[in-house]
Amino acid sequence: MNGWKTRAAAGLAAWFAMVGAGVPVGAGPAETAEADTPPVVAERQQLMVRLIKATKVPRAMVKGERDHDPAAVRAAMAEVITAAAALPGLFPEGSGEGSHALPTVWDTRADFDARLAQIEPHAAALAFAADAGPDALASAFAEYIAVCDGCHAVYRKPE
What are the TM regions of this chain, as residue ranges (predicted)? Predict the structure, then answer.
């Protein structure tokens, strides 16, 4: 196992403890949500926006659009970990209406939950990889984004 992956696995419990003191998740529906959007759908859409915003930080570094900044990656991934912890509870049975979620979310719930559970360790690995330099960051980012894309390919309606 690569050094940064070993550190990620070893430090994951400490990482979650640190993130536990972070930003509260699920404070309320997104301000931009339409009036007829169910509150739980608006809340998870707001959460996804937070995930996308945080993911843009390492993406910009990998693309060479931003200087390598491990502290910024750690902060962004802390946001991802905090937000991802709330995701499973934001997909209750029957909450597909008014969202981009496909029925497969509920038809294959165990797989969906397993995929959601992969966000946190990959985000932590990405945070630790940033300390190892740009190449390690790029490698970890590819693995992290594959988790996101893999879930969306199965469980999200095409735009």
Answer: none
What long-range pairs does 35-41 form, CB within 8 A, spacing at least 24?
36/98, 37/98, 37/99, 38/95, 38/97, 38/98, 40/90, 40/92, 40/95, 41/95, 41/97, 41/98, 41/99
Kindly report the length of the chain.
Answer: 159
Q: Which residues, 6+ apart, have CB-to-CB distance to 68 below 8 Å?
A: 61, 130, 133, 134, 137
Query: On the CB side of 155, how many CA atoms lie within 13 Å of its CA?
Result: 20
Q: What is the pTM of this model?
A: 0.78
Rounded distance between C-alpha atoms, residue 123 and residue 33, angstroms: 27
| pLDDT tens track, the chain, 159 positions | 455 454 444 444 344 444 444 444 444 444 444 567 899 999 999 999 999 999 999 999 999 999 999 999 999 999 999 999 999 999 999 999 889 999 999 999 999 999 999 999 999 999 999 999 999 999 999 999 999 999 999 999 998
The span from the CA of 110 to the CA of 152, in Å, is: 15
